[in-house]
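Q: My labmate handed me this sequence with no annotations at all. I'd like to see what the chain might look like in three dimensions before we decide whether it's worth expressing. Could you predict it?
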Amino acid sequence: MEFQHFSVMLAECMDGLRIRPDGIYLDGTAGGAGHSQEIARRLTTGRLIALDQDPDAVQTASERLRPFPQAEVAAANFREMRRVLANRGIEGLDGVLLDLGVSSHQLDEAERGFSYHTEAPLDMRMSRSGLSAKDLVNTWPPEELERVLREYGEEPFARRIAQKIERARQEQEISTTLELAEIIKSAIPAARKREKHPCKRTFQAIRIAVNSELDSLSEGLDAAFESLNPGGRLVVLTFHSLEDRMVKRRFQEWCRGCTCPPDFPVCVCGNQPKADLVNRKPITASEEELAVNRRSRSAKLRILEKR
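A: Here is what I predict for the chain of 307 residues:
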């Protein structure tokens, strides 16, 4: 299957990066290379490093960026960008883009196990290596499963679902997406099933846990900010509240100056802001974009400029 990925808010991301033809940029989530191609087209003597941990994405991005000698692709999670840059002798970046959405290819390719609509092996590994969803569902203690569903999926029926999973796996191993989906459905009251798909929160939570997405995001944000040159920009697209909350708080920390208690008459900490917000409120997809890509509806774009 060809690697498909709609480049969410493409024009807004390019505007946010404020690309210079001679600048050095990093796309931490290359995917189908939609954003990367647009960055590369704007470069002359500049340079683009595109990262992705998904082998399919690395292969596709490499092919699509082949016409651009100023661009290269590396197989790595964006939390590893400092190592990737050091290996290439790059000391600073003029812009970093992180598109945190799961690609359409990963969602639509049944064998990847991300979808609760199609029968497939219970996998969900973006890198195709390490802990799988099957491992997590069948071996983690029910208390840990409940925590994951509650914290990462904000699932109100986390305990009931974890208990149902525990009972089911005692009888036989849970090995496919639809097996897990039926267990989840059996744990949720009928009245709540009509509100949204009953499996959405649980599948999201397991995917986040399998891929250590929030830990990667926390480390990746710090690595990106440390890598930016003065005046460089960090552009981040998030797709659910946990990601957006983390990005918003981290941006606020970097933009905050004085940390003295509010009742201090004068500043004694001497802290100065390290960055400025380019947009105080997140940018969302236009009506025109939503008409052609429903998956853009939850996207929020935040932009920061380093001082």
